[in-house]
Amino acid sequence: MTEQYENNNEDEISLIDLFAVLVRYRKLVVIGTLAVALAAFAWLFVLPKFVPSLNKKTLTISYALKTERLPSSVAFSVNYDILLTATNYMNDVRVLADAQREFSIFADEKKVPSVSAYNKQIQDAIDKEKFVAKRSPIADTIAVTCKIPIEKEDFADDFIKKIAKMASDYIEADLMPEINTLEDNADMILEKYGDVGLSEKKSSSSSSSSSSSSFTNYADISSDIKAFKLKHDMFVQFLDDAFVITDPAGRTIKFIVATFAAFCIFVFTAFLLNVIENTKNDENAVSLIKKAWDEGK
To answer: Of 53-57, 231-235, 274-278, where does mean pLDDT reach its minimum?
Structure first.
């Protein structure tokens, strides 16, 4: 019990000593932190009002892109996920770089001299989540978010429209040949068997029901594809209801981080000064440090 009491007493003394250091150097910690906080406030909130180049604001723009849904009979036959394909395609660095070269929405400057610079801008936009395309909770919808300089607001819609069209064109070239082949095969089977298949469906026994069902499925596929083609326009469509939020470059967060960092640095400085002062007053500590210094030469 005595040893435990002594250990607890030592811990209490230790905490008191630490607090005493902060009290001794309170002016350094408080004044230093306040000075940095005031400087950060002036830099982030005051100077931008007088120096336009420091007043960089960003926009967070949210878009919804609608993907076309295949008829169930066709989707089952071709096994093709339009929503997943479009989302993956829009996140491709090469696709985004192509659109960036035309509209340059992720950079302040209008022109960038090299292709690699555009690619770097896009990679940076993806890494820092300045561009995000993902499945939306809403059915058949892609949610796209862009964080861009406010000066690029007029180009944002065209940028999204371009990558939406590129994704749509890619799916068109990739999927439509399969749909056309499926339609041709279904029409060929229907033409070959004609009304015989239908009559078989009505009079066949359970042993021939599978063949009759296949015939009916081909009829559904053929009619569904023809109906789909009549209304088909684009596989990925741009919706006009963009949602825009102005973000003043995260100044509030930067101010909080700068103030907290300054406080930590000055607290550390206070303890460092205390260690130096105690070391100077301790002859044994001075001799040990001097010996270690000499041995390290």
So the answer is: 53-57
Give 138: exposed, middle or buried? Use CB within 10 Å, 0-12, 13-18, 19+. Answer: exposed
Kindly report which listed range (139-153, 169-183, 236-250) carries the lowest average pLDDT score.
236-250
Cα angle for residues 49, 54, 58 (degrees, 5° grid): 100
Per the structure block, which two tokens stand in for 144? 């796209």
| Percent of the chain whose pLDDT exceeds 70 | 80
Give the residue, 82 or 109, on which the prediction is more confident: 82
For residue 104, report the phi and psi dihedrals to the nearest 5 degrees.
50, 55
**Pick from 148, 53, 50: which is nearest to 99 by CA?**
148
Two tokens at 94?
């090469």
Q: Dump strand ranges (E) for the chain.
A: 58-67, 131-135, 141-149, 236-238, 243-247
Rounded CA-CA distance 166/99 in Å is: 9
d(CA 46, CA 38): 10
Query: Which has the closest alpha carbon to 37: 254, 250, 247?
Result: 254
What value does the mean pLDDT take over residues 209-213? 48
User: Cα–Cα–Cα angle for 207, 209, 210, nearest 5°?
Assistant: 95
Predicted confidence at residue 107, as pLDDT, reads: 75
Structure tokens at 143: 């949610």
Rounded to the nearest angstrom, the gap between the alpha carbon of residue 38 and the centroid of all alpha carbons in its chain is: 33
